[in-house]
Amino acid sequence: MPGVDFTWKITGHLLLDGAMIDERDAAGWNGREITVTATSYESPFQGSCDGVARTRRLRALSDVVIELGAPHSIISDYELSEQVTEYKLTCGDRTRPPLAMWVAGFRAMTCYNNVCFFMRR
């Protein structure tokens, strides 16, 4: 299975219905990083967390797309494979939502406030 414990650089985005930011604001996130280690993460969305609990499962990207209410074009336009590994990283203090990432090799996606961000490691 692909791993998640890397520094991921945001390379693009897709606004979903109900996005809390506009296209210009979303583009401003390009180049920012999400760093995940075995016990922590640092994200521009959820902040930093030590003592992370994690789950991992294989998913069909088409199922994730349906769940998110995202366009099916994510599968072809962002070079993600049909099978992804879903990681949910939960901070021990539980004051913030889990950081969910869908990983396909050296590419990944995360969504926050109805914006999906695409990343490379």
Question: Can you give a write-up of this model?
Answer:
With 121 residues, the protein is mostly beta strands. The chain has one domain (7-120). 14% of the residues lie in helices and 45% in strands. The chain is built from three helices and nine strands. Strands 4-3-2-1-9-8-7-6-5 form a nine-stranded antiparallel β-sheet. It is globular. The two termini are 15 Å apart. The relative contact order is 0.28. The mean pLDDT is 92.
Q: What does the largest sheet look like?
A: 9 strands, antiparallel
- What is the residue-mean pLDDT, rounded to a whole number? 92
Helix content: 10-25%
End-to-end Cα distance? 15 Å
Uncertain regions: pLDDT < 50 for 5+ in a row?
none
**Looking at the structure, what is the overall shape?**
globular
Largest sheet: spatial strand order = 4-3-2-1-9-8-7-6-5
* Secondary-structure class: mainly beta
- Total strands: 9
Strand content range: over 45%
Q: What string gives the helices and strands in order?
A: EHEEEEHHEEEE
Q: Into how many domains do the coordinates divide?
A: 1
Helix count, DSSP H or I runs of 4 or more residues: 3
Features:
9 strands, nine-stranded antiparallel sheet, 121 residues, mainly beta, 3 helices
Short structural summary:
The protein is mainly beta and 121 residues long.
Give the SSE layout.
Blueprint: E1 7-15, H1 23-27, E2 33-36, E3 40-43, E4 47-50, E5 53-60, H2 61-68, H3 74-77, E6 83-90, E7 99-104, E8 107-112, E9 115-120
Antiparallel strand pairs: 1-2, 1-9, 2-3, 3-4, 5-6, 6-7, 7-8, 8-9
